[in-house]
């Protein structure tokens, strides 16, 4: 299934408004884990919303980069949810979330080494075989990097996509946040990623901690991220774009207005967003 | 350091254990290595405490921000998550509160936590269709003796020794909380979901016995026998049928079979 256009993250506070009102939202992205429950209200609303909007699934605990064995039960649950939701695509993050059976519930960065590349590539293959579909992996924002790294993050990300034959979800805000925190040029990142692999963009707000940035998803999208987004569209063309907001969540209308701004930036109508 | 060791060491650092990860990290502006690790350490605790806050809002309200935060920190220190979804983190909080000073000095706190966790279970329990009054009426009276009942998957029962539910209700309504008070005898509560809303009510001894029999798969006849000691003999069938009708109205019965 192909999707185009501009989506929002589905958040429970907006269930009512999404069902009642009519908004310019082309599709919705769900956090898969929020719906991995036996039953109840969440699945009930998902069912109703799914009949009104196309949906894509975005997970946070695949832990594709972990040295622990893949969690087959989680994958089976994910596959079952996908059968129910029929998402246009399924994504998660290029990171690890724990080892030794633990889950720290954070998106931890990998060292950019041949060893990690080989391990991740094999696991992406297993996951895609199990789910019977190609997945998208998202670049995470990070606050630390490893001395052992043998390549840049974008070389690593690109190589995973090529070797494992998966697609990429480029989070423009994460590129910007990491660029500031690690001192690289975000444009080199954009230009270093294979165009044909990029299936989705994420946009989100971050917090400026005076010198470094934290990916908090609790603000409107910042001006430099809009600027980078404009350059991403110029480079990659029209890629399905979605805004994530996880904290300090405003009324739906405010997010729809921000999404409209994304439309205008993407169409080249405006570059000056903030 | 290989990938496995890097991951173990970084995780140890996040969990507050002794770790050699700092030496394996790039030390470059804009942040020193310890500050970089500090971001992850902080996020780890904050995220798990936030999960507890979502599961236990009334416990939070009773304890206040500061005390809830320190309870959360103590709990997180000793309870790393092993769940894929953060939704399931924190199940052991009631036991922890009941066994940890100074929270254990107020036994109602552990009961509040257990009540809140159970409500969350009810909320997310599996879906099922329910039997309505019309379906109940359509059953041939001849068949009643051998009827068996399957209950909605959200049904939970719990025994509370304190005025936990009254305190919980005050907290939900943001009203002044009554003082903790031990009931003259423990009360059994019934919790369930109907039309995606949670409900609860206390059970008297008769309904408790009837539910025990019915939930265990007993027939209507066995249900009648279970309450026979507490009800005048002539009233037993009507009383038992009234209970079944009440369960049907509450959306508690998923199916009836013979």
Can you give a write-up of this model?
The complex is a heterodimer of chains A (274) and B (258). The two termini of chain A are 34 Å apart. The mean pLDDT of chain A is 96. Chain A is of the alpha/beta class and 274 residues long. Chain A has one domain: Divalent-metal-dependent TIM barrel enzymes (TIM Barrel), CATH 3.20.20. Chain A has an eight-stranded parallel beta barrel, surrounded by four helices. In chain A, strands 8-9 form a two-stranded antiparallel ribbon. In chain A, strand 1, helix 1 and strand 2 form a beta-alpha-beta unit. With 258 residues, chain B is α+β, with helices and mostly antiparallel strands. Chain B folds into two domains: 105 residues, no CATH class; 131 residues, Alpha-Beta Complex (Outer Surface Protein A, domain 3). Chain B is 50% helix and 14% strand. Chain B has ten helices and five strands; from the N terminus they run ααααααββαββαααβ. In chain B, the strands form two sheets. A three-stranded antiparallel β-sheet of chain B has the order 2-3-4. Chain B is elongated. The termini of chain B are far apart. In chain B, 30% of the residues are buried. The chains are: A alpha/beta (274), B alpha+beta (258). Chains A and B meet through helix 2, helix 4 and helix 6 of A and helix 1 and helix 2 of B.
């Amino acid at each position: 299934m192909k999707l185009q256009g501009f989506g929002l993250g589905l958040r429970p506070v907006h269930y009512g408004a999404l069902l009642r009102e009519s908004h310019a939202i082309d599709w919705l992205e769900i956090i898969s884990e929020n719906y991995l429950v036996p039953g109840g209200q969440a699945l009930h609303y998902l069912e109703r919303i799914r009949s009104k909007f196309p949906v894509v699934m975005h997970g946070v605990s695949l832990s594709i980069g972990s040295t622990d064995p893949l969690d087959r039960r989680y994958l089976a649950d994910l596959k079952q949810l996908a059968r129910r939701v029929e998402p246009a695509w399924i994504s998660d993050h290029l990171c690890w979330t724990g080892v030794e059976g633990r889950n720290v519930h954070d998106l931890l960065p990998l060292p950019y080494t041949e060893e990690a590349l080989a391990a991740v590539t094999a696991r992406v293959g297993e996951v895609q075989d199990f789910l019977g579909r190609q997945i998208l992996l998202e670049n995470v924002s990070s606050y630390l990097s490893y001395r052992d790294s043998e390549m840049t993050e974008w070389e690593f990300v690109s190589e995973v996509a090529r070797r494992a034959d998966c697609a990429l979800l480029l989070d423009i805000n994460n590129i910007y946040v990491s660029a500031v925190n690690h001192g690289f040029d975000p444009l080199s990142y954009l230009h270093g990623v294979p165009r044909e692999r990029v299936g989705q963009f994420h946009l989100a707000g971050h917090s400026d901690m005076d010198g470094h940035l934290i990916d908090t998803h609790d603000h409107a999208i910042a001006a430099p991220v809009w600027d980078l987004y404009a350059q991403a569209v110029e480079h990659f063309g029209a890629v399905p774009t979605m805004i994530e907001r996880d904290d300090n969540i405003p009324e739906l209308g405010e997010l729809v207005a921000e999404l409209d701004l994304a439309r205008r930036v993407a169409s080249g109508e405006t570059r000056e967003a903030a | 350091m290989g990938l496995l060791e890097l991951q173990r060491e970084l995780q140890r650092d996040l969990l507050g254990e002794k770790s050699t990860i700092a030496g394996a990290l790039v030390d470059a502006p804009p942040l020193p290595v310890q500050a970089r690790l500090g971001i992850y350490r902080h996020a780890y605790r904050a995220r798990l405490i936030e999960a507890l806050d979502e599961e236990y809002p009334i416990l939070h309200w009773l304890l206040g921000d500061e005390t809830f935060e320190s309870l959360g920190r103590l709990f997180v220190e000793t309870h790393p998550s092993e769940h894929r979804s953060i939704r399931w983190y924190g199940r052991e909080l009631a036991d922890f509160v009941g066994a940890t000073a100074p929270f254990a000095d107020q036994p109602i706190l552990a009961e509040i936590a257990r009540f809140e966790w159970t409500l969350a279970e009810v909320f997310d329990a599996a879906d099922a269709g329910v039997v309505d009054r019309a379906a109940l009426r359509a059953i041939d009276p001849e068949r009643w003796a051998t009827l068996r009942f399957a209950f909605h998957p959200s049904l939970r029962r719990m025994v509370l020794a304190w005025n936990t539910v009254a305190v919980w209700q005050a907290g939900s309504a943001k009203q002044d909380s009554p003082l903790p008070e031990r009931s003259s005898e423990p009360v059994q509560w019934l919790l369930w979901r109907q039309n995606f809303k949670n409900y609860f009510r206390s059970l008297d001894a008769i309904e408790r016995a009837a539910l025990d029999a019915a939930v265990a798969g007993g027939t209507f006849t066995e249900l009648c026998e279970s309450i026979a000691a507490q009800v005048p003999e002539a009233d037993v069938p009507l009383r038992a049928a009234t209970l079944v009708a009440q369960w049907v109205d509450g959306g508690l019965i998923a199916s009836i079979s013979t």
